[in-house]
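Notes from hallway chat w/ T.B., transcribed later so I don't forget. T.B. wanted the structure written out for a chain they're using in a teaching module, and asked if we could keep both sequence and structure tokens in one place. Agreed to drop them here.
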Amino acid sequence: MKFERLIEQKIWQAVDGNLSGVTPGLCLQVVHRGRLIADIKMGRTWRYYDLASLTKIIFTVPMFMQLAEAHNTGRRAEPRIDLTASVQRYLPDWPHKSQTVREVLSHSAGLASWAPFYKKMRARQFAGENERRAFIKKLLFQIPTGSKRRAVYSDLDFILLGFLLEDLYDRSLIEIWQNRVPWRQKTPSLHFNPIDIRGRCDKRFSRGQYAPTERCPWRKKILQGEVHDDNTWSFGGVSTHAGLFGTPDDVTTFGKMLRASWRGQSAAKFPSTAIVRKFTRRAISKNVGDWSLGFMLPTEGKASCGRYYSATAFGHTGFTGTSLWYDPKRDLLITILSNRVHPTRLNRAFISLRPKIHEIVVESVD
């Protein structure tokens, strides 16, 4: 396709013909006005990618959409949540009184960005999954909170949301993912690869089908089909902040469901237009940060979606080199999957390339 060749040519120009110096390869899909207009693979690519923090918007955020919608409509047949209520209302042992669910979703609850839980967990032997979850909870609940004056993008926020989900559904996260996510039927190959308490990974597909990520210094191997995120690995490979694996088609299909609902074409198995629009519009003031309820918003001058996406755009990135962004004004959805952390996260060149790819696509569409 002429359009695809044009985009490829411009990306090669952007990396001076040396894509391998930025990332081993990348997959790019572009949906304009609901139609797939580009499906590009460059460099070396694989079928399944570690989606990293895209887990937040593909799994966790839609679950809270579902819970909030149940609260708004008064449905009694399923769990529900009031976003304006305190976290303590649902988790009585949470030690901080002032945080609301809404603040946690918008990264404005004062929690730190990250903590190295995996270091303390590696030093322990667990009798089973329940003991492992109890230890994670203990570590998280001991962390003090800080100021709410500035939003801090935080994995801890989403780990906390995981405990909320488990408590509300009275199920483990993997059981919630397998049995309480109705829109999964359209993305059947999205999956977690659980890790047992002895560190053995149950990969759904053969190792060679997964994009390799980092040569991990403490796991002492190149990770391929095992989650890259250190904490998620120590949690058992399943979390609300990372852990999902999937194909470019999976991510784009999810994005198209999100798009359809935002545009008033929501299906019965996906949250409604009203709740999707509520979650994707600005949730905090600009002087605090650029966040909706779980989605990134374009930050002027340094947006990962480049210069051209409108202020109504929303999306997310993943540490391994993944992203999904949608601009309702342009009706333009862009999925990028890569394994830019292979063999090391120290190569950060892809972080500069990603906004350029978005700009190249917008310019080419225009």
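Follow-up for T.B.: The longest strand covers residues 35-43. Might be a good example for the class.
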